[in-house]
Structure formats: C-alpha cells, structure tokens
Amino acid sequence: MEPQQSECKVIPGTKIADKFLKELVRDIKATNAKVKLVSFLANNDFAAEQYANVTKNSCAKSGIIFELRKVDREQLEDSIIAANEDDSIHGILVYYPVFGGGHDQYLQNCVSPLKDVEGLCHLYRFNMYRNIRHIHGRKDLKSLIPCTPLAAVKVLEGCDVYDTSLPIGEQLKGKTITVVNRSEVVGRPLAALLANDGAKVYSVDINDILIFDRGPNLELTKYAVRDCNKKLEEILPISDVVITGVPSPNYRLPIDLLKDGVIAINFACAKNIDDEVTKKAKIFVPAIGKVTTAMLQRNLLRLYNYRDLNYKLVNGA
Amino acid sequence: MEPQQSECKVIPGTKIADKFLKELVRDIKATNAKVKLVSFLANNDFAAEQYANVTKNSCAKSGIIFELRKVDREQLEDSIIAANEDDSIHGILVYYPVFGGGHDQYLQNCVSPLKDVEGLCHLYRFNMYRNIRHIHGRKDLKSLIPCTPLAAVKVLEGCDVYDTSLPIGEQLKGKTITVVNRSEVVGRPLAALLANDGAKVYSVDINDILIFDRGPNLELTKYAVRDCNKKLEEILPISDVVITGVPSPNYRLPIDLLKDGVIAINFACAKNIDDEVTKKAKIFVPAIGKVTTAMLQRNLLRLYNYRDLNYKLVNGA
Questions:
Q1: CB distance B126–A109 less than 8 Å?
Q2: Which single residue of A109, A187, B196, B274 has CA 20 to 30 Å from A165?
Q3: Which of B102, B106, B132 sits opposite A317 (nearest CB)?
Q4: Which segments cross the bilayer (chains A, B) (predicted)?
Q5: Which domains does chain B have, with CATH numbers?
Q6: pTM to 2 decimals?
Q7: Cβ atoms of A25 and A63 closer than 8 Å
Q8: Min CA distance, A187 vs chain B (Å)?
Q9: Phi (first) and psi of residue B144, to 5 degrees
Q10: Quick check: B101 and A224 CB within 8 A?
Q11: What is the rounded distance in angstroms from the CA atom of residue B246 to the CA atom of residue B47?
C-alpha cells in the first residue's frame, strides 16, 4: 500500500489577497485619504481592458479612486509625464505591451518613481536586484518591489515558507525553490528576490537552468548567478517550493517529478499546474492575480504616504 | 539627352571623423588630461572584439587611455557598478548584446550618467526625446546624445544640411529626411533628434511609415509622431536626405526612387546603399562608424570635464 499523502490545502489567491485588502480599507479609512490611481490603456488589448475592470472593482472596494484613461499610444509618453506632474494623482499604471521591447521599457522609466505603483522603473528594479531595501539610504523610504514578484513573496509568506524568526534577508535560508520562467518582468526579478531572502533558487527557462543564491552561508550581500549542471528531472524532486510563470496555455508542470509535500504556486495567467498536483502537494495556489492587484494598491498607499516628502526622485530631465 | 547630373561627392566617414579627432587631440593635450575609458566585453562576439580594437586604436591616437575588460556576463552588473565608483575611470562602454532584450536595457541604466559615454541610460534618452538640451536645467551641463544618432547629426552638419544661421531647434527647417530603420538604439532616436532640430522625418520600418516632426511652424516644443498614408515609393522621391540603418546584408535602398541631388547616408554596419547611388546623389556617405567612435570620445571628454562637479546623477539606489 502506498503511503497516504495528507490532504492538500488549495489556497485561492483571493484568500491571501483579502488579508491585505482589509488592511488597505482600514488604513485608507483611518487616514481619510483620497488616494487616486490613474491607469493608461494605449493598446487595443481586450485582456488589458478586462484587467482594468478587475483593478477598478478592487480599488472601489478599498476606497481608492480609479480612473482609466484611454490614449493613443503616440500620446502615452506625454500623458504619463503630465500625470507625473499632477498632484491629484498618486499612482500611475500602464497596461503593457504598448510598442513592445525597448520602447516599453523606456516608457516604464518615464513614470516618476514617486508614482510608479508597478515598481517597474529602474530605481526600484536596481534596488530589488541589489538587495537594497531603502531609497538612497533613507530609513523612512522603503524601496518598492514590482507587484508580481512581490505578490509571489506574499503568497510564500502566507504559506509559512518564510521563517520570520530569522533576520530579514535570511528568512528563506535552507529552502530550495524552483521558478519556471525567467522573463525580465517576473521570473528573473522573482528568482533574485527569493535568493536575496536566502533561498537557493533554480531559475528555469527554455534554454537553461541557472542557480540564484547568496552562497552556502549567505556570505554574499546579494544574490549571484551560476550555471546549473542539473536537469529539470533532477531539481524538481528536491524543490520545497515550485513556482510557475509560463505565459503559454500549452505549458504544464510535470507533476510526477515533484517532491511529496511540495508547495506549488502558479503565477502565470495561463494554467501551468493541473489540479492533480493536489495528490502530491501540501499547498497549491492555482493563481495569484488577486494578490498582485492587492500589492499594486499597497504600493500605491506607500507612495501616497511619500507624497509630502517632496523627495526628488527623477529618472530624467 | 538626359540632364547631366553634376558629380557626386563621396565622403568617407573617416574624413568627417578626422576633424573631431583633431579637436580631441588638441583638447586632451591642452588640459594634460589622463582620460580613461574602460570597456566591458561580456559576450563571445568576434565583431565586438574587432570593434574594441578599432576603439582602442582610435583612443590611442587621441591620447585616451583605453582598457578592455573581459568579464563573465553574470559579473557584468557588479563590474559596471565598481567602475561607476572608481574615480580613475571617466567613461564606461559595454559591448551589447549581452543577455539581449530588457536585461541589456537594465544594464544600460546601471551605468552612471556621469560615465555613460554611449548616452544610452534613461536620463540621456529622455532628454533627447523630449528636446531637453541641458541636465536638470543647468546651463553648465549639456545633456549627452547617444553616439550613433549623434554621429549621424555630425555627418549632416558636415554635409551642410544644417543651416547654422537659424536658431538651435530650427536648423533643419524645411528639410525632408527619410530614416530607414526604427530600432530603439538608432533609428527611433535619430528620427526624433532630427525632428527636434526642425526636419520633417519619414521613419520607415518593416511594418509602416511614421512622420516625426514639430508641426508646420515648429509650434511644438518637441517632435510628435503621426501615421503616414504614403508609401516608400512616394516619400523617397521627395526626400532631401535619405539615411539607412538596416542591420541586414540583404537590404538595399532602391536607388531609382531617389531624388536627383539627394544626400545619401548609410549608418548601418551592412552596406545598405550600392555605389551606383553616385549617379543620383549630390553627396554619398557610405559608412559612419568612424564618426561614431569619434563621438564616443567626444562624449567621454565632456564627462571628464563634468567629473569635478560632483553632481549627483543616479539611476538607482
């Protein structure tokens, strides 16, 4: 007789998001803040428009003023800069892709760091990769973390993967985590973030597998990357946590290779992990989109609280 | 009998570069400056290594100390940051592509603006696109322009396309220029730069043709973009200047469509314009690589002169 796997807890993203959304409602009510988020839709992407509606509804529940502005893509840069300069706006969100590639990354850097709720401008990316937790060394200015990798971190915290009795930067010590996807927007930042928190991360993409970690005794101040001579068939059975983020409906995580008692998290829009993972996993989080939306609002509230610091944070000019 | 086309002047890039290189030699000698450029090679690209040799030789002639550092690509970010902090280094050059895509653009933003001889960090790109000629409004700090589009501008100046009797920002007024290529690194910045100087620019890429200009009376403060309902066959015969930058050995500019007396400039590494263009053109510049190398050194000397300003120009942290 096979050993009985104890029951898998399936945690919907909404459940983890709810805790943060309740805090947001409380904090926004308490401060009587009129927090305003402006989002720009400059493509004809139906999915983006749907996502805008989700954000709108979620913001309404939190007491956040949400405004969707549809603009021609050639007007987007000027519109972003006008919003940077408009004191009634506290956060700016852009639905990408607009032009795609380097032009979009240029636009991400046109958003003022003081309004960049997505955390995609260079300042926040740089601080995240380099394990710098505050802006320009100021203890009163915590650096922002891009929403999607931040949501994955919060999900791991919600699953008690973080050991909060350890110092910050070591709370994932001893944990082996596989992240399937190494895109510049989510997979690579997430691997770096988890390694900066002490994990050994296998970062998998279509070409190769890399190891992100801070050395055996956390002796590095930030993650380093090295080649991995193992194959997916070797790393999945030794991973405590597996996180998937492949933006394709055709990709499926090979469940038979997973360790018994694994924590399985999908942060892709596509369903990368079949439900049968519950036969192996201790915890399964099938989608984290709602947590991402909550983190967006959390970043927004933080930036709202930075608004009167009149701190010069510029990317250009 | 066909009208006789007066003879075409073929101007090699070296001839235009020489003027600037002589000025550099003079200025570097005069200040007794020990100007040092460090370049990073983190790929196994033979062409990049060859280009490094060209830069090295050119720097040697100008009296610039040139050091090539070969690093593992995973060490590149840390190496760039160490060079940012090393006062003996005045300029940093990276041979791209390294990782490609967004990761490379992230690395471009890791180079301190005070050492970014290529002018590829967000600060300089932003200022160039937005027609902002000084850094943070300081008249003593001229903003840098990325080397390749800057080289194209200097070639146009060398061909007397700029009317220097007009105010800055209007010196290309009345000129129609076609730029074939709209990449984020060269074609798009060049189109914007020329439009910011007053030209009407047709920006051609594989998908469409766009118009970059500042309106009929230069009433805009910076270029704007709009769709063009004309085809290549219609814009080439009305273009005073045609600039090609297609990075493919297969592309050839259709010479029969050019206006008699056109100025034809190729800034691609590939030979986009056949020599028979001399039958139509007034001026033909077959390659501008040497001018780009000269502009790199010119940017370097400018940054060298900024070094003691101790001006805070950061992209992150």
A1: yes
A2: A187
A3: B132
A4: none
A5: 33-112 (3.40.50.10860), 149-288 (3.40.50.720)
A6: 0.93
A7: yes
A8: 12
A9: -85, 155
A10: no
A11: 17
